[in-house]
Amino acid sequence: MRHTISVLVENKFGVLARIAGLFSARGFNIDSLAVGETEDPTVSRMTIVLNAEDERILEQIKKQLHKLIDVITVIDLTKKDFFERELVLVKVAFDKSNKEQLEKIIHKFKAETLHKDKDSFIVEATLGHEHIKEFLSALKEFSIKELVRTGKIAIPK
Amino acid sequence: MRHTISVLVENKFGVLARIAGLFSARGFNIDSLAVGETEDPTVSRMTIVLNAEDERILEQIKKQLHKLIDVITVIDLTKKDFFERELVLVKVAFDKSNKEQLEKIIHKFKAETLHKDKDSFIVEATLGHEHIKEFLSALKEFSIKELVRTGKIAIPK
User: Fold this and answer.
1) Is the ipTM above a cut-off of 0.90?
2) Pairing state of beta strands B153-156 and A2-10?
């Protein structure tokens, strides 16, 4: 099952390495991770997305996270009601034959064109999980020159 | 000096822990980190922002990163020309006296209101580094109930 875990940590040296180490020691691969400061610059929030095949091991990891020095709270948002968003930046190449199609996709997903070249656009899109998938799937017929994603962040309703 | 480092890695178990460990072993605190899949699901891109007091040590870390198994490329974007964006989700409380002011800020920064309650909004904004700072600074007069940031991602021009 896919989990979204929000971890509030003291913004101190080594916290990220300890947390990443906890997951990797138990054989968990993290699908995406976003770490940024909160309203308090001494505190950061990590949003971790992962696929747990063994829920019991994930429960153990969450307990161990709680016990870590510098970890303030651990919330598994999976069963909670929350808004989720992800930002993607993508450089897409086009030619005469498919430029219009690309512009339609950009419009449909309310994406923003940051830069226009004669044969490529740099596009920014902020979308929920399902729409990100649809957006990237719609771009599959184009040549993607570069694609950068933030990983998902989430905020409880 | 503030650095933005983009690291392309094989999407394999333990890579994140090894990379985070490299930085923390040298006493570097990471300001923000965003990890997400690229157009190739077996490959992820990490965007790391940090403040390097000792540039020589950062050079050593970049060399060590290059040598890590599962690390494909390491690019320090700091002196390059790139677009940078960050996504922030924020739950802001208001009252009669400052609701209008909040709506002005949302409009000014082209933020989007995801959810409206009688005394709070959940707002999404995707902005460049300087504008994020201005946006969060403008919100300082309000009570912030929750704030989640993705960390910056960047794409070369």
Assistant:
1) yes
2) unpaired
